[in-house]
Amino acid sequence: MNNAIEVQKLRKEFKAYSSRSGLNGAFRDLFTRNYKIATAVNDISFTVKKGEMVGYIGENGAGKSTTIKMLTGILTPTSGQITVNGMNPHKEREKFVQTIGVVFGQRSQLWWDIAVQESFRLLKKVYKVSDQQYDDHMNHVIRTLDIEPLLDKPVRKLSLGQRMRCELAAALIHNPPLLFLDEPTIGLDVLVKLKIREFLKEINEKYNTTILLTTHDLTDIEALCERVIMLDEGNVIYDGPLKNLKETLGEGKELQFQLLEKVDLAAVKHVTSGMPVKWEFDKKELIFTANIEDSDELISQVIAAVAAAFKIKDMKINETSTEEIIRNIYEKGAVEVG
């Protein structure tokens, strides 16, 4: 079997209860509750091949975490079929958990009050990993993630970046063929993120580890994944290569201006009125960004208009970012990529 994950018509519905108002309402709620059915994941289907690194992306509430919880056996689907590593995650729970590693950015699998290496020892027993296997594999993991100095510290004394590196190591104690990462770099500084990305690339190359990654940080996706599955309101709206998305939808350019004087967005918009330009303003960095089509003539017209009206301190021309492309997709709905 070449697929690590197979999902067919997967659906998850939740009952959303509403409370009636007033004392009378509260009393009636004791006997009957009003509820409506909310669909978090809406009949989605996809497969992930062994050794693939796939980005699973979507805005908050799109259904990403619900999907991951079903794929890891934490939640039972309302309907549909899931096969992960050749098993049903829910029915073959004990055998199944031996074959996956999971890192949830918001939840810890390490024991709070004991030293990191004690947690590792406990997990080693849970996963029935022999001393030989542990030494062969974990020495490399500990060295690459640079967590040796942290092994004697209790988890509560670690910074977020240190804890996430230890969480990642903990998920790999049994060297699973499949790794689920749910927001693994949330709140981390750039250097830690780079270290984690390099490490993930390395285990993917060395052990052919399959990785399904959900994240809000699109630079993670760009650095690691060739393929993205994009979710919106429980539906898959795109599944395919990241580069196709960029080629088809990333045909624009971003012009970034920093001005010497204090100017508001309306004034900048005014000087390019009549031109097909979408302006944004970053208040923190004081940068005006014009999103436009990739046309030399239009680029020079916009630059000329801004330069004639204001004193420019700095200017940059960028390809449209993945973030911008994805924001446009969410605004338009499903994606047609030829």
Taken together, the total number of domains comes to: 2
CATH class of the largest domain: Alpha Beta
Coarse shape: globular
Helix content: 25-40%
Q: Unreliable stretches, pLDDT < 50, 5 or more residues?
A: none
Q: Based on the structure given, which CATH architecture of the largest domain is correct?
A: 3-Layer(aba) Sandwich
Tell me about the biggest sheet? 6 strands, mixed
Separation, N- and C-terminal Cα atoms: 29 Å
Report the CATH topology name of the largest domain.
Answer: Rossmann fold
Which oligomeric form is depicted? single chain
**How would you spell out the order of helices and strands?**
EHEEHEHEHHHEHEHEEHEHEEHEH
Strand order of the largest sheet: 5-6-7-3-8-9
Pfam families: ABC_tran (PF00005)
GO molecular function: ATP binding; ATP hydrolysis activity
Domain ABC transporter: 25-258
Keywords: ATP-binding, Nucleotide-binding, Transport
How does this model look, in words?
GO terms for molecular function: ATP binding; ATP hydrolysis activity. This is ATP-binding cassette domain-containing protein. Residues 25-258 form the ABC transporter domain. It holds the Pfam family ABC_tran. The protein is α/β, with parallel strands linked by helices. Helix content is 37%, strand content 30%. It has helices spanning 22-31, 64-71, 93-97, 116-126, 131-144, 160-171, 190-207, 218-224, 242-249, 265-271, 296-309, 322-332; strands spanning 3-18, 34-49, 53-58, 79-84, 100-104, 178-182, 210-214, 227-232, 235-241, 252-259, 278-282, 287-293, 312-319. Strand 6, helix 7 (190-207) and strand 7 (210-214) form a beta-alpha-beta unit. It is globular, with a radius of gyration of 24 Å. The protein starts with a strand and ends in a 6-residue tail after the last helix.
